[in-house]
Amino acid sequence: MTSTTTAADAILAAAHRIQQRGPSAPRAARDPVNLPMINNWVEAIGDGNPVYTSAAAAAASVHGGLVAPPAMVQVWTMGGLHPQRDPDDPLYAMMAALDEAGFTSVVATNCEQTYHRYLRHGEALTVATRLDSVVGPKRTGLGEGWFVTTRNTWYVGTEPVAEMLFRVLKFRPPEANTAPPQQQSASTDVIRPAINQDTAYFWAGTAAGELRIQRCGQCGLLRHPPGPMCPECGATKRTCLISAGRGEVYSYVVHHHPPVPGKQLPLVVALVELDEGVRMLGELRGVDPEHVEIGQRVVVEFQRIDDELVLPGWRLDA
Ligand code: ZN
Asked: How much distance in Å is there from the Cα of 132 to the middle of ligand 1?
């Protein structure tokens, strides 16, 4: 355990050093707050509030003129497609220290934003980042890792206008933790779902060739993914129904990279809206990714991995 302790000590020492440096130098936004960017953003998000885009409506509102959507704050200081990474930036510095220790994968876990006021067109923002905390090593479903929390503060001049707490889990990818590949059978090559008391009925269903949808035992609401409590009525009593296994492609992604154990790339992951009304994710097989379209009819297809695991997926409903 000595080497583990030493590695952890080195990470905590790096965290302390980066924290001691305080916030990064403020980094300026590429452009001031502007309407073209706001138009694009509200369209993508689907926010129809006219105080962001209609000068007349904004003038008649409490704002007295156009304002920017508060949730856009991070947009203004994004680095573009080819960001200049400042090695002194506390988040990048901490990521580099964890990369070096073998914690090379990252997933965002929390983001909390606080807005002090609305921003107006023409305002020029800067952002400063400081390292809030580094906690670990923790065992997680993804592997052993460290939780890294940073705080961003956005300024107009010297006035703080918004803040963001951002937490990531920086973890060691499973390949580095497990036995060498020649000791693995083909069936352990797939990414296995975490099965717990809330989800066991679903996997028991796939093993029996059934696609089960959780149904509230009180109000009858169907829900997926499964959970311990009904979001509608709060009841914890659960039943399920067996889906007919048909629906349509609601959305999809084509995954090209990184490699996925046991999978040939590219692969299509489809979010399917089942005819019963809930949406469910799964791999869409047997179709050229170029030919996938939203709205296509699909049917469930069960893929037996081994005696303990049957994965649901989709194929086009011919
Ligand atoms: Zn309910």
From this structure: 40
pLDDT of residue 187 exceeding 80, the answer is no
Least reliable range by pLDDT among 2-11, 131-140, 267-276: 2-11
The residues pairing with 306 across neighbouring beta strands, listed in sequence order, are 309
- CA of residue 222 to ligand 1 center, whole Å: 8
Is residue 11's pLDDT more than 80? Answer: yes
Element (H, E) at 200: helix 200-207
Distance of CA 278 from the midpoint of ligand 1 (Å):
15
pLDDT band at residue 60 using 50, 70 and 90 as cut-offs = very high
**Under the phi-then-psi rule, with left for phi > 0, alpha for psi from -120 to 50, and beta for the rest, what region is 107?**
beta
Distance 224 CA to ligand 1 centre (A): 13
User: CA-CA distance, 71 to 69, in Å (whole number)?
Assistant: 5
How many Å apart are CA 168 and CA 51, to the nearest integer?
34
Distance CA 303, CA 194 (A): 17
